[in-house]
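Obj.: predict assembly geometry.
Materials: sequence records (below).
Method: joint structure prediction, all chains together.
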Amino acid sequence: MKQFDWSLIERVRSTHPLVLIINNAVTPQIVANAVNFIGASPMMITAPEEVPDMVAQADAICLNIGTLNQAQQELMTAILAANQAFHRPVVFDPVAVGSSSFRLNWTKQVLDRYPVTCLRGNAGEMAALLHRPWHSHGIDSGEGQDNVSELVQECARHFHSFALASGPTDYVSDGIDVEESTFTNPYFPRYVGTGDMLSSLVATFLAVENSLQAVSTAVGTFTLCGQSCHDRGSLTWFNHFNDVLSEITTVEITKLFEKSEHND
Ligand SMILES: Nc1ncnc2c1ncn2[C@@H]1O[C@H](COP(=O)(O)OP(=O)(O)O)[C@@H](O)[C@H]1O
Ligand SMILES: Cc1ncsc1CCOP(=O)(O)O
Ligand SMILES: [Mg+2]
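Observations (raw structure tokens):
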């Protein structure tokens, strides 16, 4: 099977899936826009009273623990519990889980109890979930010796989910196969929230097809769009990147992909 299925972009744009997102307090606007730009419909909530209605309408769910607190714990747990009747794809982003036992203990407890479709984090976050030795560094990946390809495969196996470890190389696994992609731009790690945007795009693609190929295609779309922007500063790059995301089509991403392969 091919790693990417670029036709999924047209499917997102034509079906306009509703993506229910519980985000951190730092990046909600850019995350909502990423989902909107690619052709889906972002929905963020804070009231537990709305959970049953929203989960029933959602086509996918993205949970991000970047600014986790008790209210968010209750909200996310209620969403996962309600989703047991609907089985919507769930992306879980364990932001900075290696830097706080509050985050780690709660996340492990939740992942033991509820299934998620895809874990999306950086290598340090994946290592923390597996209790591997690693020097975590807040929202950044930090330093460690483990092979990231093995980490992501082990994460997928352990949590019975897809796993995506982002970084200079992005690794995607279903616990058996591991796929790598290396489309990149040095501005990605310089703009806070690109990881959160990526998680919400993975949820968006999973909304139209629940497959490893959809996870890879989300990463490929996100990184090829960012790679194609050549700018002289973080802000100009980010604006250009968002322009490209909002215009990207199956035809245009195929051209970017072919050009990128040609340059390898
Ligand atoms: N050092 C890097 N160079 C280029 N791109 C990177 C680098 N690190 C991460 N990326 C890209 O940035 C995006 C966000 O990944 P990452 O920074 O790992 O997430 P997070 O913000 O959750 O730590 C991904 O698309 C990834 O491909
Ligand atoms: C700065 C910050 N602090 C808590 S969450 C957050 C944003 C994290 O974004 P990302 O995981 O995409 O780097
Ligand atoms: Mg992150």
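Conclusions so far: The radius of gyration is 17 Å.
To do: check interface contacts against the pulldown list.
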